Amino acid sequence: MNLRAIGCNFRTAPVEIREKLAFDPAKQEWAVSELAARFGAEVVLLSTCNRVEVYLARGLEEQPFDLELGAEFLAECHNLPGRLVGEHLYEFVNEAAVRHLFRVAASLDSLIVGEGQIAGQVKQAFELSRKLGCTGSLLNPLFQHALASAKRVRTETGIAHGHVSVSSVAVDYVRQVFDHFADKTVLVIGAGKMARLTLKHLQALAPGRILVTNRSPQKAVEVATACGGKPVPWDRLDDALIEADIVLSTTGASEPIMPRARFNSRVLPRRNGTMVILDIAVPRDFDPAIHDGDQVCLFNIDDLTRIREQTIARRQRHIAPAEAIIDSEVKRFLEEWNRRRSGPVIGQLTAELDKLRSEVVNQLLPKLNGKITQEERKLIEYHFRLFQNKLLHGPIAALQEASREGQSGTLLEALKKLFRLE
Amino acid sequence: MSGLLPNITYACFGLSYLCALVLELTRLRWPWPSLRYAALAFGAAGLFAHTAYLLYHQPDASTPSGSLLSVAWVLAIFGLYGSLHHTRQAWAVFVLPVVLGLVGLSLFMTTDLPATGTLAMPTWLISDRFWGAMHGMFLLFAAVGISVGFLASVMYLIQASRLRAKANPLVGIELLSLERLEEMNRRAINLAFPMLTVGLLLGGVLLRQYHDLAENWLSVKVLGTIGLWLVFLVLLYLRYATHVPGRRLARLTLLVFAIMVLVLASAHPFATGGGK
Predict the structure, then answer these.
(1) How many distinct structural domains can be found in chain B?
(2) CA of B157: which chain A residue's CA is closest?
(3) Model's pTM, two decimal places?
């Protein structure tokens, strides 16, 4: 195996460097093709917001691709000084590279352990290289096995359980209250970045109607146009609240826009069933005393962040079992890889000795013609075959053992030379 | 088969349901698929034995024991269906205790009358007891509706208290949404009330016609059923005519269920029969 994984991630490079090293799809396509052509190698390039990594495999007899070459290439791609890039890079060699890829795909090397995006990004990077014809006998099985292992980790451990974004946690709460959304009205109050992000998650539930209100009518129209909603004048806030089932509030108001007394007198008498209020504004828009867990379920940014942190803490408990799965899968892959390498040599060796045995037996038997019976002839053939098997048993067993330990290279070469195998 | 049926007892289905419940509870801690399949198998075995018992012994539905056993049977079907349908929610954890409670109460109320011992056509179909049977049937369906409403209300109260405490939505027992539970409760109650009304009217007519005695009219069973109907009426009024929070409606449904169990467990003024 002549495999290298070279790159940087959120631990080794600050965001200023990562964003300079990031590849857009067109540049990534060019870089993969260029690397494959320049080094005659199999190449996969992974570029996400948290990491840029090159996986490069060459023939055993060829010079390995090293950190220096990797830094030079990345610097060349992005017109940066090689030294600046080099100091943020890491390098994994052969087995360590295999393990690194498996951990990356299983999201064990992610900023938020267990996040679900990375496996898809690894798959995309692999598919692109495969489409470009830049993967082969090593990277094809390697990436397929890494992705299968990532799936195993996700299904067999709780590492991916729960959501770790505030927006997703908000949607989890909404789902605890409502079952169907086509008849629901979402009211968006304010137009902050967080509101837009959470609204995206809520839109995925396909609510029947979206109302948007803002102190600035222009902003309300902007947000409403972007999400296919209807702007509502700010002075009709109470009416809009009466109509709403889900409220998403992110104004920049310095005082609560909805004190309890106003809510109880003007909004609570509505008869639309339970209302969920996601108050992600700081300072808070709604008086927390409104929450009763029945008619009104109010969740503020602290509630959502608390759940997010609980989920992250729970995921930590699943790291050890996930690492154990990765260990066993890496071992399995390496055994499989080494077996695959030694398989053809064992086949050649057996065929060669079969040929030699047949030649010797075919010379001997005509000389004994008429002197031995048919049964004795079969017995001779059988014993020659037995001798061949006994002779081969030792070398084959040694080769298989070395393969299991990942040290079959020298033995393979020796066998090829000793038996003059091509 | 006919040799097996006389040997089926309360213990057969009661223990099967209990095993299913234990497995379901275990599944809350260790959510292994094998536990789910085992729980389903025990639930199905219990239902099979329960059905066979009802077919063979044909307990009189007008007796406390028979009526409780019949309601438990319909709920067991409901529970098994729910367990198959809602793979992620801990459905059986709520249904099976009610089924077991009703079976236990039925066992407690059992009188030692001989079983029919055959799989013959039930007598109510071939005799003049048809209207009496219809009366019992309506009340049985009403009881099932109330039981389903009760289960939905229990789950609703738990879900609402979790929301009130702002508990982590993905930790602990997985339940249906408040909206779904409220819908389930509403449908069950909407179905149960007309059944209860018709059953009660039929009972009144029959009582008037065949057993028109003061002690019959003043029996716990009759008064309890009328009381149940009245509380039910209040429940429907609160639900549709006023604006009452879901939690209060759920609590009232629990009260309706409690009265129903009391009515089912009380002796019928003029019925006889029972089962083993």
Answers:
(1) 1
(2) A294
(3) 0.70
